[in-house]
Amino acid sequence: MTAASTPKGERRRQALVVAAGQLLAEGGFDAIRHRAVAERAGLPLASTTYYFSSLDDLVGAAVEHEARQELAAGRAQLDALADARRDTGTVVELILDLLLGTESRHGGVEPVLLRYERLVGTPRRPYLAPLIRELTAELQQLVAEILARSGAEAGREHVRYLFALVDGSVVNALIESDPDPRGAARRMLSAHLEQSP
Amino acid sequence: MTAASTPKGERRRQALVVAAGQLLAEGGFDAIRHRAVAERAGLPLASTTYYFSSLDDLVGAAVEHEARQELAAGRAQLDALADARRDTGTVVELILDLLLGTESRHGGVEPVLLRYERLVGTPRRPYLAPLIRELTAELQQLVAEILARSGAEAGREHVRYLFALVDGSVVNALIESDPDPRGAARRMLSAHLEQSP
DNA sequence: ACCAAAATGGTACCCACGTACCAATATTTA
DNA sequence: TAAATATTGGTACGTGGGTACCATTTTGGT
Q1: Cα separations (Å) of B138 from A55, B21, B142?
Q2: Cβ neighbours, 10 Å, residue B26
């Protein structure tokens, strides 16, 4: 981990994590490079090796930062709609926001593609496995809550089924150059949820 | 394309494509590098730039080669079982062979992971789009035939649905470190096919 | 105030890679 | 067969990137 033991040091370290997180979101794992992170954070190159024992270490911190931030946003969004909305369309959009990111709302392949590149790139980074499992579990939990609140089947198996449906339609849309992968996922999801409330 | 105009030249060019294809299958897009391809083919480095105007050109040729070879194998396998087998288990395995590759049968994450890395890496290589679309269509056609022969629903939409189901469960299995992604896909697929013959 | 530890930042090393160059050969074709 | 064209293969250039080094400077505790 290579922690910092000074307040200022801690701030710098955090700045690096944030910078790395932005780069991750904008360009995927490969965009996290020592020099890019340092420049983005306005810090010298050597600071990246000082606070992180390796690039993987930095990547791990960035992933955790981004993922937790996104989960928190999702939870907040969910809480804002606390008054049980049962409208299927709303539920679908909520789930899509959680699985594809809110950026995917404004169309375009890029944000969705980036996300799936990240997903598929994860197994090659075994050090991310524990973190990813934890975050996946929380995400499933969140979606289960949404389903429960809207009166839909919210069992573990059903949630996993919906995840597969969304991920599968997105992946297929991406490789077929469909300009609207979120739309593809929406259709699958809607069709499924409307017939089994 | 930078074709060859000599028999020997054509053979060398082909050797490079085969080598690149092997590297692609073994290590993904990034494994296709001038030096690696040349070494694998037992040819000098410069031969790779002589026969292919760029690395992308070489990658394209490799993808086409591998994909067509695999499609042909799938078709052959299908024809061998021409006598309409209606057993769901057989159909499921056949579809999994086509979508995940026969290498995935002997367990292990690697071959499946490699395949999905390839899928997700495709959109970043726009020059592959036409080729991929063509091959995807043929693959769907193949699966439709399988379904039809076994008396299952074989409509375009249903096929797309099955693809999404398989791809989605695989992706989820991969990111959850499930050691048997093919098994995960098999369960989803079986469950679906057994209730809607 | 003083010392040890933490932090800083500039620089350098080394490797992998895509690609270009070019003189020497081999192959075609008129 | 001779000129034109295709091929060969060794080498070199330039870039990007991970990581190491190290002389200073700053900070925190006593």
Answers
A1: 42, 20, 6
A2: 12
Cα separation of B28 and B91, whole Å? 28
CA→C1' distance for B31 and D11 (Å): 24
- Contacts of residue A47, Cβ cutoff 8 Å, sequence gap at least 6: A12, A16, A38, A41
Mean pLDDT by 10 residues, chain A (197 residues): 68 96 97 98 97 97 97 92 78 96 94 98 97 96 93 94 98 97 97 77
Q: Do the beta carbons of residue A58 and residue A47 sit within 8 Å? A: no
B149/B143 Cα distance (integer angstroms): 10
Check: CB of residue A182 under 8 Å from CB of residue A96: yes
How many angstroms is C1' of C10 away from CA of A4? 21
pTM, rounded to two decimals: 0.94
Residues of chain A found within 8 Å of residue B188, distances taken between Cβ atoms: 161, 164
d(CA B45, CA B30): 17
**Token pair of B92 as six digits:** 């499921």
Q: Tell me which residue in A133, A136, A163 faces B168 most closely, judged by beta carbons.
A: A163
Q: Identify the residue whose tokens are 């082909």.
A: B14
Residue in chain A lying closest to B187 (CA) = A161
Strand C lies under 7 A from the Cβ of residue A48: no
